[in-house]
C-alpha cells in the first residue's frame, strides 16, 4: 500500500536530486572562482529566479513571524556553508563533508521526534540507512586517518547550520513558498558579502562564471521542492530524503566528469536506495 504522504516523499527526493546538481555545479564553478564569490553569485541568481516565480504566482509577502523564521533559516544555512568551506579548506574533506551531511539530517529528525512524535519502526530503519548511506557516498578515495579537533568542530557547526535551515524554513506559514525563500536567499547573500569583505576579496563581474549562477538557480529550486515536501509530509521524512543529495552529486560527477567512484561510494548509493524503500513503505 502506498503511503498517504507519497507526494511529499517524491518532492523531497526531487529536492535531493536538484540540490545534488546544484552542489555539482557549485563545485565546478569553484574551480574558476573563490568559493565565497561562488556563494554570493549563487545567492544572487537564486534571488532573481525566486522573485520571478513569486511574481508569476502572485504570492503575498510572508507574515512577520514567517519572515523571522526565513531570516533565521538564511543565516543558519549561510553560516553552515561558511563553516563547511572553512573545514574543507583545512584538508579533511573526506571526513568533514559526510559529518556535516549526517549532522544536518539528524537534527531535524530529533526535532521532529520531540514535536510530532516518533514515526513507525520501518521509517526509523530507513532513517538509519539514510544516515549510513550519506556517510558512505560522501567518502572520497583519499582518507585522512586523523581529523583535527578544529575540522571536526567545523563539520559539526556546518551540519548544525544545515539542520537549522531544515527546521527554521519548515516553520513558515503553510501555502507560501517563494517569498519566504527570497528572504532566506537575501540573508545568505549578506553572509556571502560579509565573508568576501572579511577576506578582502573582489566582487568581480558576473559573466566570467555563469556556472555559479546556474548553481544558485538549482539550489533555490532544491529549497522550493524541500519546502513543498515539508508541507506534504513530516519534517523528518522531508529532511532525511532531501539530505540524500550527495548521491546525486556523485552520480553526476561520474557521468559528466568521468570521475572515479569508489566501491564505498557505490555501496552508499545502494544503501540510500534501500533507505528510500524503507521510508516509503
Question: How would you sum up this structure, described in words?
Answer:
By secondary structure, the protein is mostly helical. It has one domain. It is built from eleven helices and no strands. α1 packs antiparallel against α8, α3 packs antiparallel against α4 and α4 runs antiparallel to α9. It is globular. About 2% of the residues have low confidence.
Give a brief rundown of this model.
This protein has helices at 6-29, 35-57, 64-89, 93-116, 121-137, 149-169, 178-199, 210-230, 235-242, 245-256, 263-280.
Set down the secondary structure blueprint.
Elements: H1 6-29, H2 35-57, H3 64-89, H4 93-116, H5 121-137, H6 149-169, H7 178-199, H8 210-230, H9 235-242, H10 245-256, H11 263-280
Helix pairs in contact: 1-8, 1-9, 1-10, 2-7, 2-8, 3-4, 3-6, 3-7, 4-5, 4-6, 4-9, 5-11, 8-9
Q: What helical percentage do the residues reach?
A: over 70%
Would you identify the regions where 5 or more consecutive residues have pLDDT less than 50? 141-145
Give the averaged pLDDT, no decimals.
84
- Biggest sheet descriptor: none
Helix/strand/pairing category = mainly alpha
Sheet-strand content, in percent, reads: under 5%
Please tell me what the overall shape is.
globular
Distance between the termini: 8 Å
Number of H/I helices: 11
Taking Cα atoms only, what radius of gyration do you get, to the nearest Å?
Answer: 18 Å
- What is the total number of structural domains? 1
What is the tally of beta strands? 0
Helix-strand pattern: HHHHHHHHHHH
